[in-house]
């Protein structure tokens, strides 16, 4: 299961039934779980903590040194959960002194050429398409979909169940359940199809829609909009998560909806 043409440092800890293909490189301060597949030419650097049943494809680089001028060689980690599919030429930087770790949950698909910067936090069940670039300390919730060639600015937060269209250059926080357009970076509706696929009831989706209508289409500023949502929309975990996300945003929230006639 482990090729004689691969290099594995004697201090590395490799789980049961792991496969390591020719020309892969695994450094010493590495832990890899059971039933993982490490593809040809993949590089697993010091600090990697990889869960079970992960697939790391050709020439991917996991836990590589941060691309951060402040990084001074401190000992940090890159923690990856179970059942992740990390495709060709993906780069995932380990943490810096800022937080100490880059963290990725479970059951994610990171498509070819994706870059995950230092100290990022990515939840579970996300799909991040080809050539997406995440700057340092980006936070992404569960069940997020990011279209190809999108880029996300440092410190930006992306809420759970949201969707970013391909080619977007996102520099402000994206609340949960919301779709953002790539041309204007404005609110473009809620992720109804995704929510339905994940078991949200029609009633709960309608409540999320009502909350977002108040927040993004009423003309109120976001803080006043949160107050109005609390008055008009029944309490639920989704409503509260949406309000909390907006009230605690540090970078500001994406622009509200604007009709095409106004845009023109």
Automatic annotation (TrEMBL):
It comes from the Bacteria. Residues 173-254 form the UDP N-acetylglucosamine O-acyltransferase C-terminal domain. Keywords: Acyltransferase, Lipid A biosynthesis, Lipid biosynthesis, Lipid metabolism, Transferase. This is Acyl-[acyl-carrier-protein]--UDP-N-acetylglucosamine O-acyltransferase. InterPro entries: Acetyltransf_C, Acetyltransf_C_sf, Hexapep, Lipid_A_LpxA, Trimer_LpxA-like_sf. One of its GO terms (biological process) is lipid A biosynthetic process. It comes from Alistipes timonensis JC136. NCBIfam families: lipid_A_lpxA (TIGR01852), PRK05289.1 (NF003657). One of its GO terms (cellular component) is membrane. GO terms for molecular function: acyl-[acyl-carrier-protein]-UDP-N-acetylglucosamine O-acyltransferase activity. Pfam families: Acetyltransf_11 (PF13720), Hexapep (PF00132).
């Amino acid at each position: 299961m482990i090729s004689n043409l691969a290099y594995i440092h004697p201090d590395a800890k490799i789980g049961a039934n792991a496969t390591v293909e020719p020309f892969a490189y695994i450094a010493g301060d590495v832990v890899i779980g059971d039933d993982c597949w490490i593809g040809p030419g993949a590089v697993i650097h010091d600090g990697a903590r990889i869960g079970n049943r992960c697939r790391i494809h050709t020439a991917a680089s996991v836990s590589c040194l941060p691309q951060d001028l402040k990084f001074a060689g401190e000992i940090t980690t890159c923690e990856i959960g179970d059942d992740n599919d990390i495709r060709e030429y993906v780069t995932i930087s380990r943490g810096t002194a800022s937080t100490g770790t880059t963290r990725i949950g479970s059951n994610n698909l990171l498509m070819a050429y994706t870059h995950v910067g230092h100290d990022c936090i990515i939840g579970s069940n996300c799909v991040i398409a080809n050539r997406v670039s995440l700057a340092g300390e980006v936070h992404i919730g569960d069940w997020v979909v990011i279209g190809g060639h999108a880029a996300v600015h440092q410190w930006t937060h992306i809420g759970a169940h949201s969707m970013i269209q391909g080619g977007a250059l996102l520099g402000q926080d994206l609340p949960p359940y919301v779709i953002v357009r790539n041309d204007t970076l404005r609110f473009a509706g809620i992720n109804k199809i995704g929510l339905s696929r994940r078991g949200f009831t029609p009633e709960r989706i309608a409540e999320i829609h009502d909350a977002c209508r108040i927040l993004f289409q009423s003309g109120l500023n976001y803080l006043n909009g949160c107050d109005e949502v609390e008055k008009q929309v029944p309490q639920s975990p989704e409503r509260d998560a949406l309000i909390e996300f907006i009230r605690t945003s540090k970078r500001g929230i994406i622009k509200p909806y604007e009709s095409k006639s106004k845009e023109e």
